[in-house]
Amino acid sequence: MAPPVPEPLSRTIETLYRSESGRVLATLVRLLGDLDLAEESMHEAFAAALESWTLAGIPDKPRPWLISTARFKAIDAMRRRARFDGAQRDLVAHIESRMSETPEENEEIEDDRLRLIFTCCHPALPPEGQVALTLREICGLTTEEIARAFLVTPATLAQRIVRAKAKIRETPIPYEVPAPQELPERLDAVLQVIYLVFNEGYSARAGAEVTRAELTGEAIRLGRLLTDLQPEPEVIGLLALMLLQESRRAARTSPTGELILLENQDRSLWNRAQIAEGVALVEKALNSRRFGAYTLQAAIAAVHAEAESVAATDWRQIVALYNQLVRIQPSPVVHLNRAVAIAMRDGPEAGLAHIDAVLAQGELANYYLAHAARADMYRRLGRTAEARSAYEKALALTQQEPERQFLQERIRQLK
User: Fold this and answer.
1) Kindly report the CA angle at 33 between 29 and 37, in degrees rounded to 5?
2) HSE-CB for 244 with a 13 A CA cutoff
3) Hey, which residues does 206 pair with through a beta bridge?
4) CA 262, CA 305: separation in Å to the nearest integer?
5) Alpha carbon of residue 46 to chain centroid
6) What are 388-412's pLDDT values in tens digits?
7) Nearest Cα to 213, choosing from 264, 252, 268?
8) What are phi and psi of 400, to 5 degrees?
């Protein structure tokens, strides 16, 4: 009978799983050449760690231990299959011949996850499958988290992942870095993946915390790797945008977890090193004159980051940047953000008119931030009953606890 697993070790392995499973899985896919087999052997390796580390202690380098253990688990599984399927024997021999390889050998990109992202974003896969599969397999987001990001049911999202994995297996899609001439067509989906990961960390869609630093940090790390690989203006712009947004993280919540809006944040807590790096990257991307939506969003974030206060913010410049952004990315959320900027420039009456026009289109009917913005305009105009109604609508639509507490407090403050 196996000894009981100490609680501290169980927590340590759980933490390791959250931080390392993406790296372990991606490396195993490269070494094994099969996503399903890599997933299965990775989970077996973490299960083996519970038993082995209880007796021997945690190794100095847990990730190589997990990769090595998972590879042996995979080979054992394939040997069992090879008894009944002769086609498996050559594959087993190939994998055994690579057992001495380390994750750093013969790498065009140092990070295996970036290589796997490009595989998952292969143009043979439908766009929604590309993003869903990458978020699930590389970045460790749950099916429910990804479903919320896409505004679909978990069952629908799970089917997208199953179909994408089947397509990779049946095509087959190689696990490799695209050739230089193939990179542009694969870049948009990769950028979308990285930014969705960042957004889930920057403003978690549900739960007790506003931010998830491990996700924002991971997205920024992947953004840096992609910038090294393909220093295109929009890649640089996305990295700048993430750095500038992340620079405010320490000021976005109180010590007890309450949400703090931009206008009330202690700007001395903003990360000046991230701001300086982000602003420099924005300028580099803008100077190329081949920039797009990510760079324009980064430019808007830079204006906020360099302002001493909300009152000192150059709202005319922000509205001008949004005017450019809506021309190339006319999404309802961009129009909503532009409306809020117009309110800051021209007053709440003008902002309310623009917000109502966006809501009239119907696409943001269940987007709580649209109703919260509308409520804020009513509050600033002294229209208390309408403000309360809009805040209550926003409250009914949000699942994040700090945001719920913030909205409830705003409702209590209305008189």
Assistant:
1) 70
2) 27
3) 399
4) 10
5) 24
6) 999 999 999 998 888 899 999 999 9
7) 252
8) -90, 125
CB 13, CB 53: distance < 8 Å: yes
Could you give the C-alpha distances from 46 to 57, 65, 79, in angstroms and in order? 14, 10, 21
CA 195/CA 192 separation, integer angstroms: 5
b/e map 245-279, b = 16+ CB within 10 Å: bbbbbebbbeeeeebbeeeebeeeebbeebbebbb
Among the listed residues 135, 115, 103, the one whose alpha carbon sits nearest the alpha carbon of residue 215: 135
10 Å CB burial of residue 35 (0-12, 13-18, 19+) is: buried
Q: Is 275 in contact with 306 (CB distance < 8 Å)?
A: yes
Cβ atoms 242, 219 nearer than 8 A? yes
Residue 40 makes CB contacts below 8 A (sequence gap 6+) with: 73, 74, 77
How far is residue 298 from each of residues 55, 291, 305, measured CA to CA in Å? 50, 11, 10
pLDDT per residue over 16-70, tens digit each? 887 788 888 888 988 888 888 898 999 999 999 988 998 888 898 899 999 999 9
Tell me which amino acid residue 216 is. Answer: T
